[in-house]
Amino acid sequence: MEIKGQISNLLDDLNKGVYEKKEVIALSLLTAIAGESIFLLGAPGVAKSLIARRLKFGFNNGTSFDYLMSRFSTPDEIFGPISISQLKDHDKYERIIKNYLPSATVVFLDEIWKAGPSIQNALLTVLNEKVYRNGDQEIKVPLKALISASNELPMKGQGLEALWDRFLVRYVVGGINDKYSFNEMISKSLNSYEDNVSSTLKLTDDQYNEFSAEIDKVEIPENIFNVIHIIRHYIDQHNKKDEKQDNQIYISDRRWRKIVRLLRTSAFLNDRKGVDLMDCFLIAHCIWNEPAQFETVLQFTKDAVQKHGYSLTINLSDIKEEIEEFNMEVISETSYVKSVSYEVPVTVHNDFYRIVLFNKGDYSYGQYKLIKISDFDKLTSECRDIEIYKDSDNNHDRNWTKPYPLKKGGNGISVVHDGKTYLLQSVEKETKQTFSKKPHKAVKKEWDKRVKVLLITTSNLKSQIDHYRSYDLKHLAVNLFVNPSLAEIVETNLNTTQKEIEKLEVEVAQILYYYENVEDQSNLGDISQLTNGD
User: Whose CA is closest to 55, among 38, 77, 78?
Assistant: First the structure.
């Protein structure tokens, strides 16, 4: 049987007689196999201790130890009483550890924050090194999982930070929500305290040790490192925005190392040789300090996976830059700049244009040569009566007007009267204007090669996307330890990346079409144009 099949069936058996606790039981087993510990936050009566008792059945010959802490708890009650015979006969201070924490496979400590300093210090050594110092001996404890629980978080300033940090996974346990499950729980006889786990599924000590060795061989792809760095960046930004100490999120380097090993464990138990993006969602369970922070860090994780999950594995920045440079080269090679002369109407007396030769030998005609700029701007291709003013340096004489039917001339700086075109008095100016030209055949040939290479590159990138679809998406929704609905986020990332690649292909096609169909304006000779000055 493959490892994933064994673990999947084992989780099914562990969940027998337990309602709505699949995720926390799965996380507890995952944490145990990773060699870490889990903290459960929840009100009394929501099956926190039951989870620990069920987990014991997952190990061959597994034993458990559970204890409800109080401020009066003593080390004797946790680690075993002092051996009177050893003390009397051999002058040794040793504890009788059988049936106590140092001899248990799974340990459950309820209301752990009420433990005294002597118990806390001993627990730190057990959690860190999996050893217990009994007298003058260091005993390697068989501990596979330590589950702690409380209905509150450790109080600030009580010296509990070190112990709190040792619980890698933190989970808020709630009551049963589904009505059908609730009705079954309160009405049926449950066998949740019986060992109904198949013996063929239980993990042996040899298996546990083999798993541990193989877990360290699991690969960590570059995009997983990228997601982690993005989450760290989000946390830094969060801490800068909220300067209140209680709202700060602090993750030590040691904790990140343990988190990565948890991801490796998830990958290994899901029969994979490398961590994938789905495993990354486990990070959210490891980086909150207050329950209110969980939704925040979960969103950090979702955003990092969705927006940046494949950005290093499928690096589009290089090809984007290459396409941009190619486009600039094509524009440069298919264009040239030339000086262009154009006519601008001369403004006279501040508000008028002067119409040149606007007379037919008629004295009165010769006097009326000015048109208001505002009237000229209103001219269209249809004739209309426009006031023409006397051309005089005297402001009073210029007030004399006479209407003439006019329309705008086709070149933009003339008027048409009685079928004849009259130019406005103008001055010639010069500007630089860009024109297009056909590329040289040799240059076009090289460009065709570049287009081919670029399209081959985008095609390979799309093939890479298809590989991720067939490989990643095939098993994303069946990760044993992550909610399957989160697989949609990973798929969204793939869809977005594919659309970006297709957009790049469109840009390459547009460049190809342009240089193949560019208008050749190189033989236009001297170019001049008349304009109204716009």
Answer: 38
The CB-side HSE value for 72 (13 A sphere, CA atoms) comes to: 0
Contact 532, 345 (CB under 8 A): yes
- Paired sense of beta strands 64-68 and 106-110, if any: parallel
Structure-token pair, residue 425: 């008095």
Per-residue pLDDT of the chain (534 residues; tens, 9 = 90+): 589 999 999 999 999 889 999 999 999 999 999 999 999 999 988 989 899 889 999 999 888 899 999 989 999 999 999 988 888 887 888 899 999 999 999 999 999 999 988 899 889 989 888 999 988 888 999 999 999 999 999 988 788 888 999 999 999 999 989 898 888 888 887 777 788 899 999 999 999 999 999 999 999 998 899 999 999 999 999 998 877 766 789 899 999 999 999 999 999 999 999 998 899 999 999 999 999 899 999 999 999 988 877 655 667 888 999 999 999 999 999 998 888 888 899 999 999 999 988 875 454 445 778 999 999 999 998 999 999 998 888 888 888 888 999 999 888 899 999 899 999 999 999 998 889 999 999 999 999 999 999 999 999 988 888 887 777 666 666 899 998 888 888 888 788 888 999 999 999 999 999 999 999 887 765 544 444 444
Q: Read off φ and ψ for residue 159, nearest 5 degrees.
A: 75, 20
CA distances from 45 to 3, 51, 181 (A): 33, 12, 16
- The answer to whether 138 and 122 are in contact (CB under 8 A) is no
Instruction: Give dist(CA 63, CA 123) in Å, integer.
Output: 18
Q: What is the largest CA-CA distance in the chain?
A: 145
What distances in angstroms separate CA 417 from CA 41, 345, 377, one per listed residue?
A: 93, 18, 16
Q: Is 38 helix (H, G, I), strand (E, B) or coil?
A: strand
**How many whole angstroms from its chain centre is CA 363?**
82
